[in-house]
Write a structure and sequence with these properties.
The chain has 352 residues and is mainly beta. The protein is built from three helices and 17 strands.
């Protein structure tokens, strides 16, 4: 069960707290010793002291109506949620927190309060505090318990990763905003090209000098894309004979630590520590393949490109490895959703 697997580290801590530790969730300590499926609507677990620092990843499970918070790869929180109701379903995919507003109100639904809003898409999907009736009831946003929304808001920052998944969904319904439709510095979609310059690696980090770094690897296309602040700064073909045999989608998040092993991206530098989050298409009973180790993905890159890539890696960098194509078909095609981040900042939020 996804819920139990994700929450075990958190429950182990909550069941045997240190003498100085006190439950910080709105729910009483009795809720801390129950399993994820035992939480009633509005209840949550919150233990940020388990992992005080590091990049945060929030995993939202639509079929379970639960959300799991990880910091530096360690579970620190679990909560009940309410996602989009029929006709207003919350989209699945890998998102980053684009904006934060503690006192936001909806522009579409009678100025409905959206406290501790954290925007995921420019066309209206966000995390925020709200009522939780025990089933999907929003217009697309992910509602969180008010107290949990406040606590989460105080710990996250722009650029943190939010994964929205549904175990009942086909992988082809996933949307990867600003990733599967790469954009240039002006926010315009880059056209598909074949051969010629498109087959060569290129790098231009001046296109976006600062911001959150995200890397997409499409094994289907045999290409790697590097984005910073949502803008493409590099692209490289991958050597087919060095690619791993892998079907599915896995998110890697870089932590703060290093190992003493040389990095396969640059042997003169140390290897970063990464945490893997299998998303779709994989048997959870099997270990996640080490897609970042020699002779895997790094060996498939040109050496100069690999060294440049190493230089932009910072804690919180996300790497999405997928067997899906990286250029999305038309939204009208069967089984596909439109790319969500197509509206500029300042667009309305759906709310509620």
């Amino acid at each position: 069960m996804l819920a139990l697997a994700l929450a075990l580290p958190l429950l182990a801590h909550a069941a045997a707290p240190t003498p100085a530790a006190k439950p910080t969730a709105a729910a009483a300590s009795t809720a801390d010793v129950r399993g994820p499926t035992d939480l009633k609507p509005g209840e949550f677990l919150w233990h940020p002291e388990i992992s005080p620092t590091g990049p945060i990843v929030l995993v939202v499970s639509l079929d379970e109506q639960r959300a799991y918070v990880y910091r530096n790869g360690i579970a620190i929180g679990l909560t009940t949620i309410s996602s989009g109701k029929a006709g207003h379903e919350t989209p699945t995919g890998v998102f980053t927190i684009l904006q934060k507003d503690k006192d936001h109100r909806s522009n579409l639904y009678n100025s409905a309060p959206m406290p501790y809003m954290q925007r995921l898409t420019w066309d209206g999907i966000a995390l925020h505090g709200g009522s939780l009736p025990g089933h999907p009831a929003s217009h697309g946003c992910v509602r969180l318990p008010q107290a949990f929304a406040q606590k989460l808001f105080s710990e996250t920052q722009r650029g943190d990763t939010v994964v929205v998944a549904d175990a009942k969904s086909s992988p082809m319904t996933l949307a990867y905003p600003s990733v599967l439709a790469p954009v240039n510095a002006r926010g315009q979609a880059l056209p598909e090209t074949e051969g010629g310059a498109a087959a060569q690696a290129w790098w231009n980090d001046s296109a976006a000098p600062a911001g959150q770094v995200g890397i997409l690897v499409s094994l289907h296309d045999q290409r790697l894309y590097v984005l910073r602040d949502g803008v493409m700064i590099g692209e490289s073909p991958l050597k087919a004979d060095a690619l791993p045999a892998f079907q599915g989608t896995t998110l890697f998040v870089m932590g703060q630590g290093y190992s003493d092993t040389p990095s396969p991206l640059d042997v003169n530098q140390r290897l970063h520590q990464w945490t893997a989050y299998p998303l779709l298409g994989q048997d959870r009973a099997q270990a996640t393949p080490d897609l970042l180790a020699t002779p895997s993905l790094p060996m498939a890159l040109p050496a100069d490109f690999a060294r440049q890539l190493y230089q932009v890696l910072v804690p919180g960098t996300t790497l999405l490895v997928t067997s899906l194509p990286a250029v999305r078909p038309s939204p009208a095609e069967s089984g596909m959703q439109p790319v969500l981040e197509s509206e500029p900042p300042g667009s309305t939020l759906k709310g509620n």
